[in-house]
Specification:
With about 120 residues, the protein is mainly beta. The chain is about 0% helix and about 55% strand. The strands form 2 sheets. Strands 2, 4, 5, 6, 9, 10 and 11 form a 7-stranded mixed beta sheet that branches.
Length: about 120
């Protein structure tokens, strides 16, 4: 079992950058996959970026080349570096983790990202 705590959201102008952090409480080596999801008002939650325990990454097309997912095992922290932000990136961003052998995600509480035009 793990607990996830996100931070780093805020208000930024279009073209700006933010870095989201997700601290993992628990055994980080029990995690198979971690990812960042986002949900805008009236829209379904979507997977934005994912990273495997082996370091492989994947991104939704709309953020490729702008967002970078990474992890620091020593700090038990997952990051999402977001550059060239657009108003359509405005959403609540959630950190998620899936343990080895599990089919469900653990979720953080979310952090709000608002991009003004």
């Amino acid at each position: 079992q793990v607990q996830l705590v996100e931070s780093g959201g805020g208000l930024v102008q279009a073209g700006g950058s933010l870095r989201l952090s997700c601290v993992v409480f628990g055994n980080i080596f029990s995690i198979n996959l971690m990812g960042w999801y986002r949900q805008a008002p009236g829209k379904e939650r979507e997977l934005v970026a994912v990273i495997s325990s082996g370091g492989n990454t994947g991104y939704v097309d709309s953020v490729k080349g702008r967002f970078t997912i990474s992890g620091d095992i020593a700090k038990n922290t997952l990051y999402l570096q977001m550059n060239s932000l657009k108003p359509e990136d405005t959403a609540m961003y959630y950190c998620a983790a899936r343990l080895h052998g599990d089919s469900d995600n653990y979720w953080g509480q979310g952090t709000q990202v608002t991009v003004s035009s």
